[in-house]
TrEMBL record:
A Pfam family: Hydrolase
Name under which the protein is recorded: Haloacid dehalogenase
InterPro entries attached to this UniProt entry: HAD-like_hydrolase_sf, HAD-like_sf, HAD-SF_hydro_IA, HAD_sf
Keyword terms: Metal-binding
Entry's Gene Ontology molecular function annotations: metal ion binding; phosphoglycolate phosphatase activity
Any GO BP annotation: DNA repair
PANTHER family assigned: GMP_IMP NUCLEOTIDASE YRFG, PHOSPHOGLYCOLATE PHOSPHATASE
GO cellular component entries: cytosol
Originating species: Marinobacter guineae
Lineage: Bacteria, Pseudomonadati, Pseudomonadota, Gammaproteobacteria, Pseudomonadales
Length: 229
């Protein structure tokens, strides 16, 4: 499923790949509509009926992920509202074991996320995730989402990599298709990003897993890179 011997770098999505997407789904589909209803004196269902089409219209764009954009558009403190349910932020199954195995293997691990820097900071505080990887890049630093094929070209400026020795792991099929189009040699899809929802159907062309325990044994068999003295 993954040719570990050919890799130098592993790019990792965060939400839905390393962290349980239940937090984000609950926020956008339940918590935000409830707070929006309170703010504008609406029935909860009326708030959902207004918000969901508005949010979905931005899908795939940087605005979809941008806390500043939604805070201004809705006149609400989105990051503050996310902090209200911060106790829902958590790892997906087997993630810490996987990250420890990546580090032991000598592979370079980089989180490449569409998450805005403000909620990113909240999630890092809650999880300690930054200490488990080598680097973190937010698409907001580059001004375009991972769905944009040009993102991968610009990423070289922040996290230099060789496409032929790189793996991208993500729960978003459009992101993985974008990465493949940009020449990333290996891609892997996560089918169970939200612990409270059913797993999705497999992608017809991209290898898929439900959880990282499916690839841990092969990763652990990879010999670590020789140390530089």
């Amino acid at each position: 499923m993954v040719d570990w011997s050919s890799l130098e770098t592993v790019f990792l999505d965060m939400d839905g790949t390393l962290l349980d997407l239940h937090f984000d789904n609950h926020f956008w589909l339940e918590h935000l509509p409830a707070r929006y209803a309170e703010q504008y004196d609406l029935h909860p269902q009326e708030a959902k009926d207004r918000l969901i089409p508005m949010i979905m219209a931005e899908r795939g764009s940087l605005n979809w992920y941008c806390t500043d954009y939604w805070s201004e558009r809705l006149s609400l403190d989105i990051t503050g509202l996310k902090a209200e349910i911060g106790d829902r932020i958590g790892y997906r199954p087997h993630v810490t074991d996987f990250l420890d195995a990546l580090r032991a293997s000598g592979l370079r691990s980089v989180i490449v996320t569409n998450c805005h820097p403000d909620p990113l900071a909240l999630k890092l505080r809650r999880t300690g995730l930054a200490a488990r990887v080598d680097d973190i890049v937010s698409s907001h630093q580059l001004g375009k989402p991972k769905e944009d094929p040009e993102f991968w070209h610009d990423l070289h400026g922040l996290a230099p990599y060789r496409a032929e020795t790189t793996l991208m792991v993500d729960d978003s099929f459009p992101v993985l298709e974008s990465a493949r189009s940009a020449g990333i040699a290996q891609c892997l899809a996560v089918l169970a990003p939200d612990s409270q929802q059913q797993a999705r159907a497999r992608h017809p062309e991209i290898p898929c897993i439900h959880h990282f325990d499916e690839i841990l044994p092969a990763l652990r068999q990879r010999s670590p890179l020789p140390s530089v003295r």
